[in-house]
Amino acid sequence: MKTFFFTTMIAVFFVFSTNGIQAQTSQTKVDQLEFMQNFWGSWTAEWGKDTILNYNVRPFGKGSERDWTLSTKGKIFDSGKVLYGYDAVNDKLIEANLYKSTPNIILNVWWATSKTTAEGVPQKDISNPKNASFRFNCVIKSPDLYVITYFMNNKVVGTYTFIRVKK
C-alpha cells in the first residue's frame, strides 16, 4: 500500500491543478494546450527528507514528453517517463506515466480551470471527479514556481513546490 501511494503521488505531481473544484461560470474557456506550455523546461522540488525530484518537460507535437528522477543524497532511486496529450473530445489533458520501479501504467486526467490553476484525478474517476478518493491541484505562482497539492479523501496528504531550474 505504501508503494502504491508513493507511486501514485509521483504520478499525479506531473503537472497542475487548482484550489478546489469550481462550478461552471461564464468565463472564457481556458486553452488546455496553452496551459500545458507553462511547464516546459526543467524543475526541481523537495520530495521528502533528503529527497529531490528533478523533472524535465519538452514539447512533443501538440503535447509534451517528460522525464523525472528521484534521488537521495545524489543517488537516483527511481525514475520515469510521462506523456501528456490533449483529448479534444473531452477538453482534458491525459497523462500517462511509466515508472522504472513498477510495470504498471498510471493514467490521470487534468484540466486547467484558469490561466494559473488546474485540477486532476485518476482516469478511473473522471466520470465523477467530485467524488474521487484521490485528486490533485496545481497553482502557478509565477513563471518559475508552481505548487501541487495532493488530496486523499478530501484531506491534504502532500504539498510540493516546484522551482524552475535556470540554465
- Total domain count: 1
The top level CATH class name? Mainly Beta
- The best one-word shape is globular
Low-confidence stretches: 1-9, 11-25
**β-sheet strand percentage:** over 45%
The succession of helices and strands, N to C, reads HHEEEEEEEEEE
Distance between the ends: 38 Å
The mean pLDDT is 87
The quaternary state of the protein chains shown equals single chain
How many DSSP E strands? 10
Q: Name the helicity range.
A: under 10%
From the 3D structure, determine the CATH topology. Answer: Lipocalin
Second-tier CATH architecture: Beta Barrel
Spatial strand sequence of the major β-sheet: 1-2-3-4-5-6-7-8-9-10
Q: Biggest sheet, in brief?
A: 10 strands, antiparallel, barrel
